[in-house]
Design a protein that fits this description.
By secondary structure, this protein is mainly alpha-helical. It has helices at about 10-20, 35-80, 100-110, 115-125.
Length: about 130
């Protein structure tokens, strides 16, 4: 029957040297369970779906932004007044909602009521 020896310091040192020189280090070895592998796969798929969703949102935003820019360019082109050489084509076409502006308009128009009334009467006469 072989003799059973206890582990002495020399045996521990030899084991440590052998492990240090080996390719696979014992402290780097991690045995994954089936649950850990499945969890890693699930997280990977979830991350891919999230990236795909973000890419789709980004593309939709870029498309909407380009449509908005095209719409603004179209409005700008429509607003160009070739007679004056400026972009004042939409001026005066929208109703005024600001009370201060309404008061200013009223004051300007009532400054000289006779020429204004004459101009309005002339326009009405031309329409009829």
């Amino acid at each position: 029957m072989p003799a059973v020896y206890g582990v002495d310091l020399i045996a521990k040192r030899d084991r440590k040297i052998k492990m240090d020189r080996s390719i696979v280090k014992f402290w780097n070895v991690h045995y994954q369970t089936l649950e850990e592998v499945e969890e890693a796969e699930r997280l990977k798929k979830q991350k891919q779906e999230e990236e795909a969703r973000k890419n789709a949102e980004r593309l939709a935003n870029e498309e909407q932004e380009s449509e908005t820019q095209e719409h603004k360019k179209k409005q700008t082109d429509e607003a160009y007044n070739s007679k004056t050489g400026s972009y004042s084509g939409h001026y005066g076409k929208k109703p005024v909602h600001d009370e201060d502006q309404k008061q200013q308009i009223h004051a300007i128009l009532n400054e000289k009521p006779e020429p204004f009334e004459y101009a309005m009467a002339t326009l009405q006469a031309q329409e009829e």
